[in-house]
Design brief:
By secondary structure, the chain is α/β, with parallel strands linked by helices. The protein is built from 16 helices and 17 strands. Helix 12 crosses helix 15.
Length: about 425
């Protein structure tokens, strides 16, 4: 199967790469040619005049079934949001609800240009099945909370996820281990997971320093910051780690992260909406710690549009330093593409448009009033575009959306299922 994209403005996201008009040839799941004019017989030709071809966006922190709870618990403090609304509602979810909720998230992500995501939740078989059917790329993690004794059931489910799903769905599914957060993982449990990660050569996905309350809890129990707690328990020794949030980090905390494999998933909209704070991402970047972008679940962020995260991330740092030169357009777009691939540990295959890499490509339509005139494509993408400007989404060499129409999801069926299920889940809460 060959797909030829013609006459696109090509943004490869390689360093110092100029944006040029040209063609991209895809064979099966990979990019095999990028140049000015490609003359070849193809099974499908996509005319991309007026469109930017760029790497698919990568959402590095998600709880996809929480789309079922979008708008259900807004304007609450985080612990009230969690204990009074989220946890009771999630307790009402069936495995089938989780399947449909994750599918709703995938529909939104595809329609807004996201081609890969990192997910942490329960009933991961349901999410993996949805990923398989929909055609997305995903790093899946069974969240591990150790506040009560479940007889090792959660860890067994995490191992089962790794053994059953790693490399499946044409290689689109990868897996991680997911100790939920420092305050939900006592030392012996955390060390058990770290040992398992080293044995199986599996990355770790965890939450870190999302709220001030978390810091206070860890300080009271261990007389450490959450970051120091993870460091002292050996999390950053050899293991590839994806740290979600990283809002309340001291300069000393950041020193513990220097040289780590992996990096920090910055979730600016969720952190703002829940009043958690602003992550010191410039300090992280200055220490050469990789920072990428995530949305968090739609239950908190209410949107999975990565273009909104791109804008918000840039504007926050410009405001924080009162300096408009901080976190410039290319840099923040890099966080949503190349650096996201690094955090998911899939940068050998995706994150840039290059010959030999997997064909995860989006086409963004610029022929719209809010994206004209075209003085700087980078500025338009970083500060003006939104998810609805994505015309076509290609993942692993397959077109999953064209002319804004989803090709692997029946939207009418999806919305019918979501309407009935979401009402039942929140009833009487």
């Amino acid at each position: 199967m060959k797909i030829l994209i013609k006459n696109a403005m090509i943004l490869t996201m390689k360093q110092n790469q100029e944006i040029v008009e040209g063609d991209i040839l895809i064979a099966d799941d990979r990019i095999i040619d990028i140049r000015k004019h490609i003359h070849v017989q193809a099974d499908e030709v996509i005319q991309a005049n007026g469109m930017v071809a760029m790497p698919g966006l990568i959402n590095t922190h998600q709880h996809s079934p929480m789309s079922l709870l979008r708008g259900f618990s807004d304007d609450l403090k985080l612990m009230d949001w969690l204990k009074k609304k989220m946890l009771p509602a999630e307790a009402n979810m069936t495995p089938e609800d989780i399947y449909w909720g994750s599918k709703l998230s995938m529909a939104e992500m595809i329609k807004s240009g996201t081609t890969a995501f990192a997910d942490m939740y329960i009933e991961m078989d349901q999410i993996a099945q949805a990923v398989t059917e929909v055609g997305m790329r995903a790093s899946l993690t069974r969240g591990l909370v150790f506040l009560d004794d479940d007889g090792g059931k959660r860890v067994a489910e995490a191992i089962d996820l790794i053994e059953r799903w790693s490399g499946k769905a044409e290689g689109r599914i990868t897996t991680m281990l997911g100790p939920h957060a420092p305050y939900t993982c006592p030392p012996e449990s955390l060390q058990e997971v770290i040992t398992l990660a080293k044995e199986k050569l599996i990355p770790i996905h965890t939450h870190l320093a999302e709220t001030k309350e978390e810091g206070k809890k860890i300080k009271e129990i261990y007389n450490q910051t959450p970051t120091q707690y993870l460091y002292e328990n050996g999390l950053f020794e050899q293991t590839h780690v994806l740290l979600a949030h990283g809002v309340h980090l001291t300069l000393n905390d950041i020193s513990y992260l220097k040289g780590m494999n992996g990096g920090v998933a910055h979730n600016p909209i969720s952190n703002l909406k829940l009043g958690c704070g602003i992550s010191p991402i410039m300090e992280l970047i200055n220490e050469k710690i990789t920072v990428a972008l995530g949305t968090d679940g739609a239950g908190s962020a209410t949107t999975l549009d990565m273009f909104e995260e791109i804008k918000t991330a840039a504007w926050l740092q410009k405001l924080r330093f009162e300096d408009p030169t901080t976190l410039q357009a290319f840099d923040v777009l890099e966080m949503a593409t190349r650096h996201g691939a690094t955090l998911l540990n899939i940068d050998e295959n995706v994150g840039t448009l290059e010959v030999g890499k997997k064909a995860d490509i989006i086409l963004v339509q610029l022929n719209k009033p809010h994206l004209q005139p075209v003085h700087s494509i980078l500025s338009l993408l970083a500060y003006s575009a939104n998810g609805a400007d994505v015309d076509t989404t290609i993942i692993n060499g397959k077109v999953v959306m064209k002319n804004r129409k989803l090709l692997t999801i029946d939207e009418e069926e999806l919305l019918f299922e979501i309407t009935s299920r979401s009402k039942r889940i929140v009833e009487d809460i």
